[in-house]
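worker-03 picked up job from queue 'complexes'. Input manifest follows; two sequence lines, order preserved.
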Amino acid sequence: MSDKAAGLAANTVNNYKKHSSITDILISSLIYTLYTLFALICIFPFYSIIINTISANDLSARGDIVFYPQQIHFQNYLDVFKIPGLWNAAVVSLGRTLIGTSLTVGASAFLGFMFSQEDMWGRKFWYRFTIITMFFNAGIIPWYLTMRSLHLTNHFLAYILPTIVAPFFIILVKTFVESTPKELQQAASIDGAGVMTIFFKVILPISKPILATVSIFAAVDQWNSFQDTLLLVTDSKLYSLQFILYNYINQASSLSTMVNLQNAGSTAMATLATKQTTTSIRMTVTIIVVAPILLVYPIFQRFFVKGIMIGAVKG
Amino acid sequence: MVRIKEYRMKSESIKKFLYILPFMGLLATFAYYPLYGWVYAFFDYTPPTPLSQSTYVGFKWFRSLVENQVKIDQLLQVIKNTFGMSGLGLLFSWLPMIFAIFLNEIKALRFRKFVQTVTTLPNFISWVLVYSLAFSMLSSEGIINGLLNQLGLIDSPILFLQDSEHVWITMWGWSIWKTLGWSAILYIAAIMSIDESLYEAARVDGATRMQVIWHVILPSLMSTYFVLLMLQIASFLNNGLEQYFVFQNAFNKENIQVLDLYVYNQAMGGGSYSVSVAISMLKSLVSVVLLFSVNGLSKMIRGESVV
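worker-03 finished. Artifact:
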């Protein structure tokens, strides 16, 4: 079971004739080597940045911290949160993630369920009307001009409203609902339940696994979103963490001067090791932005691998 | 009696539609209404003058795309970049499938889970974060240069991120890094659903590991591969903006500008909205043609449509 949850096919293992020919051993060691390498390439950047943020800043600025941290300290994290605008951006990112995700998940659940209702007027048409937007759009400039004419530039709702109807999530939920026994809905219907009652009392409770999947996808999308801030927002109060990070990569040198100036009075003991550098600021903010994903990911990984498979196998 | 029942069913079916109407409204506003913005391509539009006061210029902007050699060259370079990077993606579109097949061959369960977990992770971080990681690793004062320097392999830092010559390949590399593990999940799902009796039969016939892969697993994955390939072809021109936007700099600009980025740079950097809209309009039209051709092709070959 745990094997399946991780998304792996138990049935195929040990199904071969037990050859331990030379080629077999060669293939095996090649597979293990390549996968180990690729796995390392995938996590090493994260690891390396984390050890750099907690090492002496003068060492890390010179690129001296490669495999293990040296002279561990946490001053970077304390200092970075003194940068004006960072807290605000964290609140904006968190806010859009919470509000946006709940609305998207709610709408996806409801629409996925409704599109499974065969007797809905124009069902096929409206379903296609929804799905085709995955493949076809007007382009970013017409989109930007539309948002401007709707007065959604520099508006928090610009982060939320366009994401509510999400075709891909709707497909996932619809596929799931269609895989559940029809009798459940029929029985409720005979008992006199209307569409809404069926949705809330029957569908929502049994759709938890797929909704968990959709939630984590939607949340990650919201948290990671950068393009909408780039296009639509000039008001620094609405900057998201991703946008701030992008700016910091390009202009961190002035920021480090600023932080060091702020600290000059209060901490006379700011040594070379804890003094902010361009590198230290950039890396610390990177870790702050990536931390929620790194924390949430291992918990939900099982869930969404399973969820995407439900959608994939049937769809 | 029958008529009343029919009427009830009809009203029930309309009622169901009314429930989804608000959502269709949202979709109409944010996905379909922007299509109206295409009219900007036919006007001499410079903000902040409103459209109503702009002059209608017909196909002037479309003609302007090809009016002199400099512009033609620029557009050709952009198209070349788009084709180059999408083409690399298509060329290696089998990688996730191979990745899934051989991952499935790993017998140590813990190791397999570890690999799958770790390689899926990059898919969940944004391009901005990818760029930040890339910057920390590869910039002139980055970790790789630091390491090479310590080992005495280089005297001056290698400017990986300013490299223009290999930018197609590095961009492809980053997207593989980000998506390979994730894309493999679909194939792992497909491998899971392979009928057990096929393995039995292969085993009875005394098939070796590679023979099982070649004659049982690979054929079973072909339909999944085909659908994904078709979708990839349909979005050939849409490489997206974010990846190239964050990685662009003064040095690699020529080779990194794909259509999406070019449209953005023209409008937001150069202020030429109308030209940008004209390009994205052409791009969308080509995409739709591609989508429908691919769909038709799929119907013809497999008797099943992709979309």
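worker-03 released lock.
The CA atoms of residues 90 and 232 of chain B lie 7 Å apart.
The first helix of chain B runs from residue 2 to 32.
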